[in-house]
Amino acid sequence: MTAPIASKDNSQRELDRLADISRDVIRRCIDAGASQAEVGASIDVGLNVSVRLGETETIEHTRDRAFGVTVYFGKRKGSASTADLAADSIAKTIEQACAIARYTEEDPASGLADADRMASDFPDLDLWHPWDIDVERAIALGLEMEDAGRAVAGITNSEGATVQMGEALSVYANSHGFVGLERGTRHMLSVALLAENEGGMQRDYWYDSVRCADDFGSAAQIGRTAAERTLARLGAQSLSTRQCPVLFAPEIARGLIGHLLSAVSGGALYRKASFLLGELGKPVLPSFIDLVEDPLIRRGHGSAVFDAEGVATRRNPLVEKGVLQRYLLSSYSARKLGMASTGNAGGIHNLCVSTGDDDFAAMLRRLGTGLYVTEVMGQGVSTVTGDYSRGAAGFWVENGQIAFPVEEITIASNLREMYRGIVAVGKDIDPRSHIRVGSILLDQMTVAGG
């Protein structure tokens, strides 16, 4: 059995060991002739237990290690990695990275982030909450979720319940003298159920994801919610082609915001592969919407003191009153664009979308008659053109009340028009993601039957 990192409260000792190895490797890279060097090291431990129809299906213990070395010989870069922390393996990894760098072409944008941007303050963000759970307790939790869901009248089958525990340690160090240590936990409960009647079979699920297991709600309630969602889909029908307002559920709305983040990321911009190229300082959303990155939220899913290059993170607006204030840049993409890093190497950290005062019921009333989307499918989104066309399922709403479930439909528009057509953002925020957003109401999309 693989023990959790914190089983003997040794997480800090493990971090310190990784940090010592990282410092030594950087010194050896410089001694080998590198002008700059950086190291990323991590240890991930997890337990994943799944049950189905009252029986244990899988029990998986994981313990993964990664150690990556990147060196720069002037503007030439080389990287190599290993999962083995033995001295011989690390020595070979350093040798491979240096050999690669000596034979690659120069890239004027390569190199470490600027030394004066390194984080120097390391507040405790309350991200480390090891879950003292054994296999037997995990199985019991899974069965509790599934049993509660299957006990709801109308549920006919189950795809199973899953209990996941995860602990992660990571160190990033570079030749500026920066050494950043992070540790965090992520735990999840989920269950998927099926229901069937004369109209056919339907499937749905529910889950919860937290940093601290004490923040989980009732496992039985997760099962009941999955059952309610599944039963609500029975009798689903298609729709004729029409133009109508569309309301995205919070868990779907965060994907809509995610497309915007992709379009303002440095990689898409310097490759000229974004429909928001050249939109800095211009309106991209309605004036009542702000998007603010807040990386220092305690227990936040995307909280971090520094980014993947050691650059200090900070609370920083992305969109203010609908106007795009900045891009999401690493040091490399920033140099390609002639700009400065925004501390977003590796992505964004806790994006908070401003909301109105409407709860879900009020958002349905604002929708009036239109489509409420609870699921999207397919990859029909182009960050280059903004074209959006995806399969969808959800509910048809009439006069602010859910009328019947729908499926086998396609929703289509262009992201630029969709963003400017946002009518309201609900206060029903989904807390299970680093994108914190409520339901989003759009004035109009094309809806087509299957």
Strand order of the largest sheet: 3-2-1-4-5-6
The proportion of residues forming helix, as a percent range, comes to: 10-25%
For the sheet with most strands, the description reads: 6 strands, antiparallel
- Quote the distance from N terminus to C terminus: 49 Å
**How many E-type strands?**
17
The third-level CATH topology of the largest domain is: PmbA/TldD fold
Determine the structural class based on helices, strands and strand pairing: alpha+beta
Strand content: 35-45%
| Contiguous helical run count | 9
Describe this entry's structure for a reader.
The protein is α+β, with helices and mostly antiparallel strands and 450 residues long. The protein folds into 2 domains: 5-230, PmbA/TldD superfamily (PmbA/TldD fold); 236-450, no CATH class. 24% of the residues lie in helices and 36% in strands. The protein is built from 9 helices and 17 strands. It has helices at residues 11-31, 87-103, 135-150, 219-232, 250-263, 266-270, 331-337, 360-367, 415-420; strands at 36-52, 55-73, 76-82, 155-174, 179-197, 200-210, 242-248, 291-293, 316-320, 323-324, 351-353, 370-377, 387-398, 401-414, 422-425, 435-436, 440-449. A 6-stranded antiparallel β-sheet has the order 3-2-1-4-5-6. A 5-stranded mixed beta barrel has the order 7-12-13-14-17. A 5-stranded mixed β-sheet has the order 10-9-8-11-16, with helices on one face. α3 packs parallel to α4. It starts with 10 loop residues before the first helix and ends with a strand. The model has no long low-confidence stretch (mean pLDDT 96).
